[in-house]
Specification:
heterodimer, A: MetI-like fold, 14 helices, B: 360 residues, Rossmann fold, OB fold (Dihydrolipoamide Acetyltransferase, E2P), 5-stranded antiparallel beta sheet, 36% strand, elongated
């Protein structure tokens, strides 16, 4: 509170805010664009309208895209959370060098450029008969989201005494019951954070989606992308605004929860 | 089901555990009697924890068999063994309350809620923690956590209790209290207890018998007193209490008393139950408190290097003419007349004070 304002500090803070503005401002351009009363993408001139929001929630194409995205996102999140969490817990239990090597492999989908994954999956899905199926897209997104769950759960396990798993076994719980009763409750935060990551990744995934689907699966980012190319319907801006709003709300909830949790520590 | 009040015996046959070329356990044979309190004592890396974890089922032996109450449990999963285990660091479940932790083994066994509550209350009363049932482990002190771990390991009336360095993280005073408590608990419950520690005082205070471990083998097994008074090897004589060591060659034997030629002159040594012949080289272990100031049947002149008063006793380090270092403890009644550092004193010991031990 009593920090002195030196010229250096002022310069530093100014630059920081310019950078923040530079990063965030383009994102918010969609807000005014979405409120235009015109039928083409334009800045509203005086009059504001919500008609494009209405069309997002009434037109079948948008609703279908929203539905597809939600279905794919939820499915991918469930699979990624299960597999990523199971991998992290399993490797934590095994430990040692083998676990570390497999741990790096588990992060590969995050490291490999998406275009490479996209190409590989599109070939593989054609062979397996999963091309342009909902399940194929779900599986693709789950692969992309899994490393994030793996990372967050691994981090949560870091502080856990491996002996609590042995303790549960010695008290009569089998291996699966041990995971359910003792390990999962202690890595819940990691699973939730990882799951959220996985969902967000699936929600705005476009590259891999373009390669593994054609007509029957049409997620929101795909619809936006093709709409922008074909016509300049302001509904795209409305959808973007809605997505920004959703992101801000989720981030705010997260931040508030973190602050609430950090508070008692500050007091003591 | 077995009789709840009685412990069960454990037999280990040729138990080995190899990690590559490293032998954590090397052909261990051991019989723990039903209801016995046995402590595995040894320095770190001696295999004592590996042995305990093999009993608990977390280390799969490379060779050998474990029998409990007459049946082999070598291939049994840990959860099927029905042993209570108190882990190093206690391993309490951080997300469960004290009552939740203690009730967990009962919940796993499918007991009803009222029955669990009653047993948890009894177990917590046993360790005097009834008033803390709703706390989380992190809200407890180390000693309290240790008691919760104990209650959790005993609440399901296991066949035996395995303790892995149960006092490791506690301070000395608390450790002493808990040792007495654990000993009483053992007498009261009559179950088989197997304890692992590197603290010889803890081992002596609680155990019926101690197995001293070294390099994956049991070096010597016996009652604390027997081990202390009659160590078989140099390692045991030095690990369980301190010892002076004197080397010599037997030059004569008369009525169970051997005369040895040592670097500082002749020594007489009562052979006791360990026979020796003329010409044998012997290594004698001599406890510091059996060494006395003033002449005795064995006599030596030595220079006082340090003399420290410690309250209950005094410790004097001496050096003989040959360069042999000797440690001498003076009881409280003699500690007032401490010899001055740098002076030469005469000291002596009884022929029965020395024990012949195997060199390493």
């Amino acid at each position: 509170m009593t920090r002195r304002l030196t010229p250096g500090l002022i310069l530093c803070v100014t630059i920081a805010w310019i950078v923040v503005g530079f990063l965030l401002a383009p994102m918010f351009i969609s807000v005014p664009l979405s409120l235009t009363p015109e039928r083409f993408l334009s800045m509203p001139q005086g009059e504001l309208s919500l008609r494009h929001y209405a069309s997002v929630f009434t037109e079948d194409a948008w609703l279908g895209a929203l539905g597809d995205s939600a279905m794919v996102g939820i499915g991918a999140t469930l699979i990624a959370t299960f597999t990523g969490g199971a991998a992290a817990i399993g490797l934590w239990r095994i430990g040692g060098r083998a676990a570390r090597i497999i741990g790096v492999l588990a992060l590969m989908p995050m490291i490999v450029p998406p275009i490479v994954t996209a190409l590989a999956l599109s070939r593989a899905w054609v062979t397996l008969g999963l091309f342009d199926t909902v399940f194929g897209v779900i599986l693709s997104h789950a692969i992309l989201g899994m490393p994030f769950v793996f990372m967050t759960v691994s981090a949560a396990l870091e502080g856990l005494d491996p002996r609590i798993a042995q303790a549960a076994r010695s008290l009569g719980a089998g291996p699966f019951r041990t995971v359910r009763d003792v390990i999962v409750p202690n890595v819940k935060a990691g699973l939730l954070t990882g799951g959220l990551f996985a969902f967000v990744i699936s929600w705005d995934e476009i590259i891999v989606t373009l390669f593994v689907s054609s007509r029957s699966v049409y997620t929101l980012p795909r619809k936006i992308w093709s709409d922008i190319r074909d016509n300049i319907d302001p509904a795209v801006a409305a959808v973007s605004t809605l997505m920004i709003g959703a992101t801000v709300i989720v981030a705010a909830i997260y931040l508030l929860r973190d602050l609430a949790r950090a508070k008692p520590k500050d007091v003591s | 089901m077995t009789d709840e009040s009685a412990g069960q015996d454990i037999r280990l046959y040729g138990l080995s555990k190899y990690y590559g070329d490293f032998r954590a356990l090397d052909d261990v044979n051991l019989h723990v009697a039903a209801g016995e309190f046995l402590t595995l004592l040894g320095p770190s890396g001696s295999g004592k924890s590996t042995l305990l974890m093999a009993l608990a089922g977390f280390v799969e032996p490379t060779h050998g068999d474990i029998f409990v109450g007459g049946s082999s449990i070598t291939a049994l999963a840990p959860e099927k063994r029905d042993f209570g285990v108190v882990f190093q660091g206690y391993a309490l479940f951080p997300h469960m309350t004290v009552a939740g932790n203690v009730g967990y083994p009962l919940k796993v066994r499918g007991l009803g809620k009222p029955e669990i509550a009653a047993k948890v209350r009894d177990a917590l009363d046993l360790v005097q923690l009834g008033h803390l049932a709703t706390r989380l482990p992190k809200q407890l002190s180390g000693g309290q956590q240790q008691r919760v771990a104990l209650a959790r390991a005993l609440v399901f009336s296991p066949k035996m209790l395995l303790l892995d360095e149960p006092m490791g993280a506690l301070d000395k005073k608390l450790r002493h209290d808990l040792q007495l408590e654990l000993r009483q608990l053992h007498r009261r419950l009559g179950r088989t207890f197997v304890n692992v520690t590197h603290d010889q005082e803890e081992a002596m205070a609680m155990s019926d018998r101690i197995a001293i471990m070294r390099a994956g083998k049991i070096e010597q097994l016996g009652a604390p007193r027997a081990l202390y008074d009659a160590p078989e090897t140099r390692f045991v004589a030095d690990f369980l209490g301190k010892s002076n060591f004197i080397e010599g060659k037997v030059t004569g034997i008369d009525a169970g008393i051997a005369t040895l030629d040592t670097a500082d002159g002749p020594v007489v040594h009562a052979l006791g139950t360990r026979p020796a012949g003329i010409g044998d080289s012997l290594l004698l272990a001599l406890r510091p408190q059996k060494l006395m100031l003033g002449p005795g049947p064995n006599s030596r002149k030595a220079t006082v290097e340090t003399a420290i008063f410690l309250g209950t006793h005094a410790e004097v380090s001496l050096r003989c003419a040959s360069g042999l270092a000797l440690a001498l403890n003076l009881g409280i009644e003699n500690a007032q007349a401490l010899p001055a550092e740098g002076t030469t004193v005469e000291l002596g010991w009884d022929p029965a004070a020395t024990v012949a031990v195997r060199p390493d």
